[in-house]
Design goal:
- The chain is an alpha+beta fold.
- The chain contains four helices and four strands.
- The termini are far apart.
């Protein structure tokens, strides 16, 4: 399984659900969402700065993570979502050894 990091911001509606009287346990909700598509919620953090949250997931494909992101965005609770895939640098180095490249000449 690959590891994905999803960063995003909460809309006003989404932020209200974190602290309002109808408080929603986002970690439990995200865990259930991940389980529903065969993914694993590795961790979830509230952030200070440009993004409001970071979700770390393990999934079989980007499509699995993208489908969860699409559902969250469609709800109107989150915005400005960016998903990054963690890569194995050793695997990249191994493949790079066989790359044949000729730089442009000027």
């Amino acid at each position: 399984m690959s590891i994905y990091l999803t960063l995003g911001t909460y809309t006003n509606e989404g932020a209200a659900g974190l602290v309002g009287p109808d408080y929603s346990d986002r970690r439990a909700a995200m865990d259930a969402m991940h389980n529903s598509v065969g993914a694993k919620l590795v961790d979830y953090h509230i952030l200070r700065g440009q993004y409001d949250f970071c979700v770390i997931s393990e999934a079989d494909s980007f499509a699995v993570v993208a489908s969860m992101t699409l559902m969250a965005r469609g709800s109107g609770a989150v915005d400005n979502v960016v998903t990054l895939e963690s890569v194995d640098i050793e695997e990249i180095r191994s493949v790079a050894k066989g790359v044949q490249y000729t730089p442009p000449s000027g």
